Amino acid sequence: MKTIIAPSILSADFAHLAEELKKVTDAGAEYIHIDVMDGSFVPEITIGAPVVKSLRKTSQAVFDVHLMVEHPETQIKSFADAGADIITFHVEAAKHPHRIIQQIHELGCKAGVALNPGTSLSMVEELVEDSDMILIMTVNPGYAGQKFIDSMLGKIHMLYHMIEEMETECDIQVDGGINAETSVLVREAGANILVAGSAIFGAADVAQAIKDIRGKEIHHHHHHHED
Ligand code: DX5
Ligand code: ZN
User: Fold this and answer.
1) Please, which residues have CB within 8 angstroms of residue 194's CB and are 6 or more apart in sequence?
2) What is the pLDDT along the chain (227 residues), one digit of tens a residue?
3) Best mutation site among 10, 45, 174, 178 for ligand 1 pocket (most ligand atoms within 8 Å of CB)
4) Which ligand is nearest to the CA of 10?
5) Catalytic amino acids?
6) Measured from the CB, is residue 35 less than 6 Å from ligand 1?
C-alpha cells in the first residue's frame, strides 16, 4: 500500500501559508492537513473556512480538513464550499455521525471520522463501511509537538483487521507525534495516511523529512478466509 504524507499546517508559519504549502508539496507531500480548532472541542482556535478558500487559489494539493469542533454538522458546507477535498469530524462531537457522512458526500467531498485516543473503535464500527477514512488520533488533539501514544498501535491494527474483515475500502490516517521512528510502527500496524506537523515543518530539509517519514513500502500479509 502506498503511503500518503499529509503535512499539518498547524506547524507552518501562519504569516506565509501559501509559501509553506508550496514548500511541502514541492517536496513530495500529497495532502495538506488543515487543523481547524474552535476553542471549545479543544482549547485553541486556529483557522476557518475563509483561510481555506484563499489557500485553495494557491494550491492543487488535496486539502484534508480536520475539524476539531463542536457541532461539526454546522461547518461542513462552509469548508466544502471553500475547497476542502476531505472533511474529517470527530465522532465525540457528533450526535448523528452517519448523517454527517452523508452530508459530506452530498457536497462532493470524501468523509473522514476521527477518534480521540480515549475513544473506542466500537464508536466507528457501523461507520467504517460508509466512510472514506478513519483518523486514529495518536495524541490528544489540540496541539502540535506532543509525544506519540504507543498504546494506539493496537487500535490501528484492530481497525486494519476490521476493514479487511468487512471486505471494504477505507483509509487509515494517523495524526500526532509522527516522525521517522513512529512512522514505521504505524505503517506496520496498517496506517496508510500519515499526518506530521513539527517533524516536517520543523525540519531543516523538508524533502528529506518527508522521505524519512514515508519510509520503505510495507507489504501486509492479507488473510484469506476460505471456508
Ligand atoms: C493535533 C493536530 C495535529 C498536529 C500534529 O491536535 O490535529 O494535526 O498538528 O502535529 P505533530 O505532528 O507535531 O504532532
Ligand atoms: Zn490534525
Assistant:
1) 3, 4, 5, 6, 173, 174, 178, 183, 186, 187, 213, 214
2) 799 999 999 999 999 999 999 999 999 999 999 999 999 999 999 999 999 999 999 999 999 999 999 999 999 999 999 999 999 999 999 999 999 999 999 999 999 999 999 999 999 999 999 999 999 999 999 999 999 999 999 999 999 999 999 999 999 999 999 999 999 999 999 999 999 999 999 999 999 999 999 999 888 876 655 44
3) 10
4) 1
5) 35, 175
6) yes
